[in-house]
Structures are given as structure tokens and as C-alpha cells.
Amino acid sequence: xxxxxxxxxxxxxxDSPDFPHLNCGSVHASDGEMALLxxxxxxxxxxxxxxxxxxxxxxxxxxxxxxxxxxxxxxxxGQEQDYEVFTKSASKGQHARVGKVxxxxxxxxxxxxxxAFNSDSWVWMVVPSAVIVAxxxxxxxxxxxxxxxxxxxxxxxxxTERLIREIKAGQHDPPGDD
Amino acid sequence: xxxxxxxxxxxxxxxxxDDEMILAHRNxxxxxxxxxxxxxxxxxxxxxxxxxxxxxxxxxxxxxxDEDPETYPDRLVFFREAPFFRNIQMVELLRGDWxxxxxxxxxxxxxxxxxxxxxxxxxxQPLAETASKxxxxxxxxxxxxxxxxxxxxxxxxxxxxRLSQALxxxxxxxxxxxxxxxxxxxxxxEGLVPLKxxxxxxxxxxxxxxxxxxxxxxxxxxxxxxxxxxAHSEHLVGLLTEMQSVARAYPGVSW
Lengths: 178, 255
Known about the structure:
heterodimer, A: alpha+beta, 8 strands, 23% helix, 27% strand, B: mainly alpha, Ferritin, globular
């Protein structure tokens, strides 16, 4: 049987320039560009956002404090590249970006991340910088501004639910109804 | 604005509002039925945006028609009969398959991307302000539909076949977008609206560039099925019956 499910992408959202990118969830998409578009629709319809990143889930590596010792030993060779590092310091909450490391494998990146950013984190996540697809910096308005001036209304703003109950109770008979 | 142009500008805005409203309703039929959850959300958002834009145009229309901008839009949408709608026929066609709906929305988005910047510099300030607000959202719509057209065009033999078939069906209808509206030249001469005939060339060039990236050929020529916005296909009546049913069943209640 063919797997018709599209690959999953992690989504990282930055709410303001003073805050780090936070992992807010994931979307399915055929590729990075579509993932970014989907992420915008799923996660940035209403709230503030200045930058959005997506990365294929298959390229995201993660380790907890308990798992550090079991990390495979670093490869002796391998192309060095930048990894974005995210950590989490509470069981609830989101992975927040803390910085970058240069490493030659995901395991190497996790080890270096755990050494460089160890204050109170208990889980580290690394993503090769090169696989991240980011919202274009020069197109901020098109991506996010529209969401700012759109009013957000809670369900309770509308009378619909009460009205439906009244209609069902026969309080608003339609014209022509006996 | 010259007072005698007011009714013409009002009609022009009603036509734009009706295009967005009917397209939005057709696209909303995908809610719960899109090929994947994320796209269900995205396409529904897009339909809601278009409905919001229709609301803005209806309000401007109401202002010019000396009607109440709060209540008149609902009357126009829910209590008008088909012959009084001024939308082009393309937007009332049945939703078809995913390629059909996506291509229709794409062709509409490109057209809007062409004339919204011009409308944003209209000499009628309320129109200029509304257009510039809408233009920001439309940039994003276009990016979304463009991405889909490229993927359907270059995806699988089936997606390409479906997209080509949709193009054959939609193309003549899309050309109605550029049929001049009554008194358009007078309105344009006052700097109120751009000329649709000029927009057509820019639209064609943009569409052709995207089609190249999607392995699609630009159809040769073609004529719209009608040049009269009062004429509709048989599909509009069915759409209105559904769209208006609740408002008409319980007139006077406030939702």
C-alpha cells in the first residue's frame, strides 16, 4: 500500500523580534514551501508573528537529559554545518531557540548543544540550519500584517447558538409554517 | 467626484463585491472536503477572506447608493434574486475537482493583484483605502494558489491532466473579468478606477509566466460566454437557493 500521507514539518514561530522562535506544532505538506504556507494558515491566522520557520521532521533530532549518555559517539569525519538549537526547561511549554552550534552530525550537534546551553534545560533539539525554510524577511506585511487588523471574535460574540435553540423550541416559526 | 458618476461607481463596486461573494461561497463548499486537513484550513481561510472583501465592497456600494452600510449588504446577499447579481459566470460554476477550484481562484487572484494596486490610488478615498487593505491579503492568496498551480502542473500525469482540463473549461469564463463595465471610461477618466482592458494584458503576462513554470500552455484567444453581468449560468440559482435559505427561512432574526 502506498503511503499517501505527506511528510511532517516542525513549525517554529517568532512572536516578536525580542523573543526566540518557539516550536508551536507541526503541519503536513508536500515540500518546504507548501509547509510554510500551511504553517501560516494553521498557526498565524490571528496571533502576532514576525517570522515563521519550518523544517522536515525527519531532519530534527532531539535528546533528553537522560538520553545524553546514550548518544552515539561523534563521527570522526562528516561535513561540518550549522545547527539551530532549541531547548525546553519545563515539561510543559515549547522548545525555544537558544542559539547555534557547528557540528558534523546530529548526535555531535546534540552533544555540543547540551554543553553550550545547559542552564536548566532537560531537552535539546537540533535542526540543520540549511533545511529550514523561513518566511521571507522582506515580505513581512504580506505574510503577517493582514492578521493584525482582522478582528478576532469568540464564538459567544454570535447569537447563533441561542437562536438555534429558540428555533428548535418553535419560537421563530418560518413564514408559511402551520 | 462628479455626482452623476456616483451610480456608475456604485455599480462597479457591486460587481466586484458579487464576484468575491459568489466565489467565496463556492470555495466554502470545500470546507471539510479538501484533500488534506492543512489545506482544508487554508482554503477555508481564503474563502473567509474573500467574503470579508465582499463585505467591504458592499459597504462602499451602500454608501454610494445612500443605503445603510450596516444592513444593506445582508439584504443584497440574502434577498436578491439571481438576475440582480452582477458577478461574472466563472465564479458561479460548480466547484469541480481540486484543480478546477484552485485554478479558478488562482486566475482570480492574479486579476486582483493587477488591479488592486491601481484601485489603491483611486481618487475616491474610501475606495483607495479599502483596496490597499485588501491588496495585502491578496498577495498571500496569490502565493498560495501559485504554489498549487505549479505543483499540480508538474506533479503527476493525473494532476497535470486535471489541471489542463480545468484550464480548457475555465479560460473563456475568466476572460469575462476584463469586459469593461458600464461607464468605465468615464470613471477611469476621473481617476476613480483603472481600465479593465489594460489590466488584461498585464494579467495575461503574469499568467503566462506562471503557466511556463507549471508546464501549461496559455490558451489561444477565446471569448467570454457573455459580456453582460446580468446574464448568468444555471448554476447561480442553485447556489443562491442554498446560500439564502437560512436567512429567508427566518427573516428578521439576528444571527
